[in-house]
């Protein structure tokens, strides 16, 4: 089902779509490029075609360099989020580094927009409940002079997209 049809059936969905649109279009704490990266990273991490189609229709396609950012962040967070969360729950005296996961150093990824990469990582980490990685990437953004308002805008974009996904799921269950 598409979002337009769902809006007529689920009043709560309109609230979430309005939050997304307002946060995406009416605020400029984040650059437009980084807003698109956050929206796409969240949609990809949500693993929902409906959500991904909605994001594509609302924000457009990503540039090739931004696709690389989202794909790199998605790939790396799929490994690091569960690994470091499990280590946080039960510390071990072995491993515990990016090297133990055979991760290439960040500089070897040839990412043009490091801020965009870290924003993609916080979006994906929020979806994956990878709060160790989330905190690490927030620290990287703050070290790179990103303001709290920009980081908050990114988190609200993620929250609104998560809520849209939930409302769409609810529709399938209760229709």
Task: Summarize this structure briefly.
InterPro entries: AhpD-like (IPR029032). The longest helix has 27 residues, at 148-174.
Can you characterise this structure?
The protein is an all-alpha fold. The protein has one domain (3-90, 98-174): Up-down Bundle (AhpD-like), CATH 1.20.1290. Helices cover 74% and strands 0% of the residues. The chain contains eight helices and no strands. It has helices at 3-9, 11-25, 32-46, 49-59, 64-89, 114-128, 131-143, 148-174. Helix 3 packs parallel to helix 6 (114-128). The longest helix is centred in the C-terminal third of the chain and has 27 residues, at 148-174. It is globular and about 55 Å long. The chain starts with a helix and ends with a helix. The model has no long low-confidence stretch (mean pLDDT 93). InterPro entries: AhpD-like (IPR029032).
SSE inventory with pairings:
Elements: H1 3-9, H2 11-25, H3 32-46, H4 49-59, H5 64-89, H6 114-128, H7 131-143, H8 148-174
Poorly predicted spans: none
CATH architecture: Up-down Bundle
Shape: globular
What would you call the structural class?
mainly alpha
Oligomer: single chain
The end-to-end span amounts to 11 Å
Number of domains: 1
- Beta-strand residue percentage: under 5%
Order of helices and strands: HHHHHHHH
Report the average pLDDT across residues. 93
Main pleated-sheet profile: none
Could you tell me the radius of gyration in angstroms?
A: 17 Å
Helix content: over 70%
* Tally of separate helices: 8
CATH class: Mainly Alpha
Return the CATH topology. Answer: AhpD-like
């Amino acid at each position: 089902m598409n979002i337009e049809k769902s809006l007529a059936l689920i009043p709560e969905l309109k609230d979430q779509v309005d939050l997304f649109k307002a946060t995406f279009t009416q605020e400029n704490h984040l650059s437009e490029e980084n807003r698109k990266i956050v929206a796409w990273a969240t949609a990809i991490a949500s693993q929902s075609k409906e959500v991904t189609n909605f994001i594509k229709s609302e924000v457009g396609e990503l540039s090739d360099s931004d696709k690389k950012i989202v794909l790199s962040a998605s790939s790396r967070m799929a490994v690091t989020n569960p690994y470091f969360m499990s280590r946080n729950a039960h510390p071990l005296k072995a491993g515990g580094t990016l090297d133990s996961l055979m991760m290439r150093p960040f500089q070897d990824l040839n990412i043009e927009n490091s801020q965009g990469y870290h924003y993609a990582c916080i979006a994906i980490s929020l979806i994956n409940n990878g709060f160790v990685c989330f905190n690490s990437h927030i620290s990287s953004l703050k070290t790179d002079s990103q303001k709290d308002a920009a980081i908050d805008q990114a988190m609200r974009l993620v929250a609104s997209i998560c809520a849209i996904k939930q409302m769409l799921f609810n529709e399938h269950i209760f229709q």
